[in-house]
Amino acid sequence: MSIAQAPERVLSTLNEDGTRHKIDPRLSHGRFLNARRVVGYGLIALFVLLPRIEIGGKPAILLDLAHREFTFFGATFRPADGFILMLFGLALVLTVFLVTALAGRVWCGWGCPQTVYMELVFRPLERLFKKRRALMWAAYAVLAVALSNVFLAYFVSADTVEAWVFGSPAAHPVGFSVVVAVSALMFFDFAYFREQMCVLACPYGRLQSVLLDEQSLIIGYDEQRGEPRGKAGKHRGKPLPVLREGVVQTLGDCVDCRACVSTCPTGIDIRRGLQMECVGCAQCIDACDAIMTKLERPRGLIRYTSKAELAGKPRRLLRARVLVYPALLAVVGVLFLVQVGERTKADVWVLRQEGAPFTLLEDGTVSTPVRVKIENRSADKRVYRVALEDTAGTRVIGARPEYPLDPGKSAIVPMFVISSRDAFDGGERDARVVISDDAGWHTSLAVTILGPETSSVKEQP
Q1: Where does a domain end: 316, 343, 370?
Q2: Burial bucket for residue 437 (CB in 10 Å: 0-12, 13-18, 19+)
Q3: For 263-303, what is each residue's pLDDT tens digit?
């Protein structure tokens, strides 16, 4: 039984028969590689150091899932801040849209962890240990474990990870399991899956068809200058006429050396135009510029450009989507700042009652249960007090005088409001509960006190 073959390669990582086409890109030195190294190693250092940097006594970034607290550069958000976190996520999405519309896939080639670690850490190790595979695998494993511990520090703090590293795994089985799982995934990704993460798994390349337009910055091959291809040697930028198939043609600058193909980390031929697999790393630019320099031809046959410029049209930075995205981003940003500014030092709300809504006491008064929940959202310990604003004809029993709460902690304050029978209108009366702390903060909540309808009061035995 024969296997049907595709007429041409469908993906850069697949052969015509469906087997994997392994890519071993040649490193091309140049100005863009140097710039990417500065950016990439800077991002790696930032990733490692951020859990160690403290702002206001807190880690710069801490995603404490166990306590449902998310700290970003000194500000702590909790589940009650869901709307603020939604605005933050929406701002990130709009920023990605705007950056892509302007600069194309600059994130993929310059900032994405997959590209940064693959091209600036793991592939250099592969080249270093080319003939010593066992050492290479060992280095990969050590790096994967180290990076997974740094990753864990974003969720439990760097001090906790450090204590865990020098302790027994049995004392922290969940954290140890996370490190093992993340290390295994990293090793699999960078040792085997590699460029397929960009080509097959990541959806960003497939989204570029709707996020890019003719004015977006891309890496493109100047077909008008480069075609037809041919090896014509040095000619200082002057095209040479050659006889091809009985016709005199003027060769372009592309000498078909395939340097741009051999250096591409995803294995594409950039001369075929914009492709989903292109991550915008600029390795093909450095490779082509080196060849052009050797042949004494102008650089830029492959360059950062736009589809409009390649078609001979001017590039326009201002266009509809470039104006709409910042406008939406500004609206989301203003809403975010307003919501952050209006955050109170504590969250308080009245809980739904359980059991009987009220009780008639022997002395003829009515006892109504009220439950108030307080959550300390400040960065310091606070002592809270709860009282009824309007105490005319009523009294409160059951509540403690003070409720001390640590940051992020909460407490439920149960109380019973004792009212006279004739205080109710239609089985209810309005009141306000006042909550204050020892730092001067206070607020009040409207609460409905339930009781019997006056006309239908019956004594309880």
Answers
A1: 343
A2: buried
A3: 999 999 999 998 889 999 999 999 999 999 999 899 999 99
